[in-house]
């Protein structure tokens, strides 16, 4: 009986300590406007010597967790063809004669982020987004590119805009 009561006492002390720790711990709160930072860009290795794709990785925070769109989010203002159909905006730039020039490609690099709203009372969220991009413009001879990136949440709060470092591609 003494062993059983010691185990019960240890369990109760551990549970109480855990509850005290979790109740004293501050919840992280971010502003409701999304904020993004550049993390990395990785070229995808291929069997040819031509670079064609890469993975852009950014981090984000959002105080109310309303990042992402579901497949059913197709009514105004998220309807196809509208400004907010996409919530991840990526502009492709080529470095031409030392200056960045925005280039419109045949296919958009913009994308829809899946809904990532957390469960529970605190909706503040922090995470990373990875997106695969085509990096080689076959109609161009320039070998240095960069991307501008921003996101928008479902409340239409636009994040800051970031630019990647120079990306050298093998044509």
SSE layout:
Layout: H1 2-24, E1 35-43, E2 53-62, E3 88-96, E4 99-102, E5 125-134, E6 144-151, E7 162-163, E8 167-168
Antiparallel strand pairs: 1-2, 2-5, 3-4, 3-6, 6-7, 6-8
Task: Give your account of this protein's structure.
The chain is an alpha+beta fold. The protein has a single domain (28-168), classed as Sandwich (Immunoglobulin-like), CATH 2.60.40. Helix content is 13%, strand content 32%. It has one helix spanning 2-24; strands spanning 35-43, 53-62, 88-96, 99-102, 125-134, 144-151, 162-163, 167-168. The longest helix is centred in the N-terminal third of the chain and has 23 residues, at 2-24. The radius of gyration is 23 Å and the shape is elongated.
């Amino acid at each position: 009986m003494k062993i059983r009561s010691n185990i019960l006492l240890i369990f109760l002390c551990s549970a109480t300590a855990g509850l005290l720790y979790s109740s004293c711990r501050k919840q992280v709160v971010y502003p409701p406007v999304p904020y993004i930072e550049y993390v990395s860009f990785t070229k995808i290795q291929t069997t040819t010597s031509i670079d064609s794709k890469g993975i852009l990785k950014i981090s984000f925070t959002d105080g109310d967790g309303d990042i992402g769109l579901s497949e059913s989010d197709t009514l105004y203002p998220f309807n196809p063809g509208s400004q907010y159909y996409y919530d991840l905006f990526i502009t492709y730039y080529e470095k031409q004669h030392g200056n960045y020039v925005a280039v419109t490609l045949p296919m958009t690099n913009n994308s829809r982020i899946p809904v990532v709203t957390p469960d529970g009372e605190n909706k503040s969220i922090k995470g990373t987004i990875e997106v695969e991009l085509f990096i080689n413009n076959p109609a161009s001879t320039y070998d240095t590119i960069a991307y501008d990136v921003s996101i928008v949440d479902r409340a239409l709060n636009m994040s800051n805009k970031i630019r990647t470092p120079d990306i050298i591609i093998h044509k």
